[in-house]
């Protein structure tokens, strides 16, 4: 049950022991004669962004007893109404945190997926290997997970309508300045504010001015696809075409347009007799005017034309237009599938997680999974900071990046390959899809699933969830703090034993 007490006022930026002129916005400090600040208490963390990554990190820090506050720029977050899928990579952490069963109650397991042509000819059928991973792949409406996490954060630790204007950091701390002229000062800043992160923008601008930003981080994100997503109101499973809504498992259908239409559309059944749907348009092949390319938010005057164009697309539930009509307009969102793997994730006391550090195409359903795995690994690194000092903070944030980068890099490449499989319409992409769906042996697919499911970080500061499935699980880096505490306990016990023998 979330704490409903009135939130206390934001703490002002406390005066620094040294003149503020010594602040270095990019991190570090300018004067070598400043003594290091060392504290025995846990670091105090500022999280910018109340999306899935920020909320999950907050929940982890709450469990670990690490002080934190979350700041969100808008007054209310309205998650996209489309489907989400979570796999064993993060579900083991949910089980460890005691929220797995709550997610199961609002989800449907996906046992398989069927591919169709534009004319509803079945082209492939893929089974999910949950006996390998030990976890069923769970599908649900995105707001279900968001609300689950949001309601577990004490209300006084989430501050809405707090848009960050800038921040400064030095060896003594980090200060956030908001658009309402308030400031707050803590030990660590986490940018969990999405693909167009304000924290990343401000950090990169400062680093670029100092010649410290890699050239690759100055590029714009790739934008290859545009998508419409939505979730219907409850439909009647007694109606013949909707009868599979009552099934225990989710029905996942992928429809690929023919050579004349660079579209792909998907439907997924979720609890509540609802259908999540998604229409993906390959931009480089689409006949869409420039205004529609530029307009990132929902704008009826520029999008009605596309929704009208897709009305006659065939699905197993009848024309796609019927599903769109069963979806309230406010539950339909237009999004661009942008992607970018940034090199710089941390500098000084600042660190980026989730889409702020790596925007992954949703073709593998791993964007949110990787964002929350970031939170798990970062929470472990923050837990190991003892004592709290500038050098220990920098080392911990660097350790987080080192643990995560190569895995995210592999997922980023995998999402590109899967986008060609699920959304691609060029001649090569159609050939690639035919080869994968028709010629690739099942054993190769199972091998890839085993490899993908092996990476399952958990919280070091909690009892570990049991290993499930018959696949191997990669050992994660142990907690240095817990190791030291065990060694100290062993030495203490040894001294007690020696003293007892001496007596």
From TrEMBL:
User: What is this protein's name?
Assistant: FAD-binding domain-containing protein
**Claim: Flavoprotein is one of the keywords in the record:** yes
The organism is Linnemannia hyalina
Q: Does the keyword Phosphoprotein apply?
A: no
Which family is this protein grouped under?
Belongs to the paxM FAD-dependent monooxygenase family.
Record field: compositional bias (Pro residues): 1-22
Transmembrane regions: none
Report the domain of life of the source organism.
Eukaryota
Q: Which GO terms describe its molecular function?
A: FAD binding; monooxygenase activity
Start and end residues of each stretch annotated as Disordered: 1-34
Q: Which UniProt keywords apply?
A: FAD, Flavoprotein, Oxidoreductase
Domain FAD-binding, first and last residues per copy:
44-205, 330-382
